[in-house]
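ok so for the tutorial part 2 we go from a plain amino acid sequence to predicted structure tokens. step 1 is just haveing the sequence, like this:
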Amino acid sequence: MQELIVQSSVRNAARAITSFLYCANPGYLHVLEGDHQAVAQLQARLSQDARHADMVTIMDETSTTRLFPGLNMGSAYLTSAALARLAGYLDPQYRSVLLPTSCNSQEVIMDLLHEFVAEQSLSIRPC
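step 2 — the prediction. this is what the tokens look like for a chain of 127 residues:
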């Protein structure tokens, strides 16, 4: 896994993409940030890779700030419970139930991811 992360970091740096991969058994949460076209091309390439089966895009929006500036490919293990908690809030199927229509979903999701990153940073160990 470490070799893959190093290779991805080099590729992402060349495309000005920052990202963080949360690893949990049995799933992953991968946050990609950068120019829309560069991220779309990376997503298209990842979707062709058999290791990325059942890939779902949770949010595809423009933001003026990055969650992981300077991290071309960070990674950390999560407990399944932590990933399930975050994924439950981010699942597009439930987003309308969890967020009032007056809320800016991008702001809420970014705030939630910031909170989650801060919580998890205490126990980060690379994948």
